[in-house]
């Protein structure tokens, strides 16, 4: 099926929002350092741009998860495909996500990370689709709340395509 992408949030709007988030995070973590945990692959573009705009000391780690049974949305039970390189105990951990949809993946992931005894654990997402929420997840930093549409770009994919778009777009099927 052919599809095309229509712009929802321009590159300038996204850049401006990431600067705002960076300013807020720098203020909130003043006098501390922050350990960014990126959920691959979608969160990676956002995390790199955000990290550049945080003025307190930053360290980074990455993890990759997939769902048991192949459908993250239905089960929410995630399998770690690539675990973090470093322990989290004593660190001010900020999980970086591309989008919170049903909230299933993240609620599971956050519980798992909490068991590793970080000093603090917060969540930052570029996009949030609140209408789709099934499991309650506390989001500490949100870039944009968006309507229930399938979006791509800035790390988000449709069938592994469009992650490299520098804006957020909506996939329209022709
Ligand atoms: P959740 O567990 O339903 O919150 O699933 C979140 C994951 O689903 C995200 O990390 C994305 O990988 C994927 N996802 C949800 N909505 C979209 C979308 O609109 N575009 C691309 N991926 C999405
Ligand atoms: Mg994701």
Mean pLDDT rating:
94
Please name the CATH topology: Rossmann fold
How much strand content do the residues show? Answer: 25-35%
Domain module count: 1
Number of E strands:
9
Q: Which of globular, elongated, flat, extended, rod-shaped describes the shape? A: globular
Briefly note the structural class of the backbone.
alpha/beta
What letter string, H or E per element, gives the SSE order? EHEHEHEEHEEEE
CATH class, named Alpha Beta
Poorly predicted segments: none
User: What ligands does this structure carry?
Assistant: inosinic acid, magnesium ion
Strand line-up in the sheet with most strands: 4-3-2-5-6-7
Distance between the termini: 7 Å
Q: Main beta sheet, described?
A: 6 strands, mixed
Oligomeric form: single chain
What does this structure look like?
With 174 residues, the protein is an alpha/beta fold. The chain has one domain: Rossmann fold, CATH 3.40.50. It has four helices and nine strands; from the N terminus they run βαβαβαββαββββ. It has a six-stranded mixed beta sheet with strand order 4-3-2-5-6-7. The longest helix has 18 residues, at 11-28. The protein is globular. The relative contact order is 0.21. Magnesium ion (MG) is lined by residues 39, 42, 97-98.
